[in-house]
Amino acid sequence: MNRFRPLLAEMPLREGQQSHVLGGLEWSRMQTGLMTFLARTAYHGDASLGESLVAPLGRVMEDLVR
Questions:
Q1: What's the domain count of the chain?
Q2: What does the alpha-carbon distance between residue 53 and residue 66 come to, in Å, rounded to a whole number?
Q3: For 7-54, what is each residue's pLDDT tens digit?
Q4: Range of the domain at 42
Q5: Is 24 within 8 Å of 38 (Cβ atoms)?
Q6: Which helix (H) or strand (E) element contains residue 16?
Q7: Residue 29 and residue 33: Cα distance in Å, rounded?
Q8: For the chain, what percentages of helix, strand and coil (3-state, to nearest 5) are there?
Q9: Would the pLDDT of 1 be above 60?
Q10: CB contact set of 53 (below 8 Å; sequence gap of 6+)
Q11: The dihedral of CA 16, 34, 50, 53: what is its sign?
Q12: Which one, of 33, 34, 37, 38, lies nearest residue 54 by Cα?
């Protein structure tokens, strides 16, 4: 995700947001198994996996949006 930061930072805000969201949607469609695993882990799985895997990934995604 970090490799896209410079590109997104150079774009106008609206264009950068749109690119970020569309890119994320495309990635999630390609990675349905991983997305299913992360969702199950976050909401119905082992709490330790939520803390060690899902929470850090969520923080990275949130930081990228900022």
A1: 1
A2: 21
A3: 888 999 899 888 878 888 888 888 888 878 877 877 777 777 777 877
A4: 2-65
A5: no
A6: helix 13-30
A7: 9
A8: 90, 0, 10
A9: no
A10: 38, 41
A11: negative
A12: 38
Structure tokens at 19: 């690119």
Q: Which residues of 8-47 are buried (b: 16+ CB within 10 A; e: fewer)?
A: beeeeeeebeeebeeeeeeeeeeeeeeeeebeebeeeeee
Q: How many residues does the chain have?
A: 66
Q: Give SS3 for 11.
A: coil
Residue type, 38: L
pTM above 0.70, yes or no: no
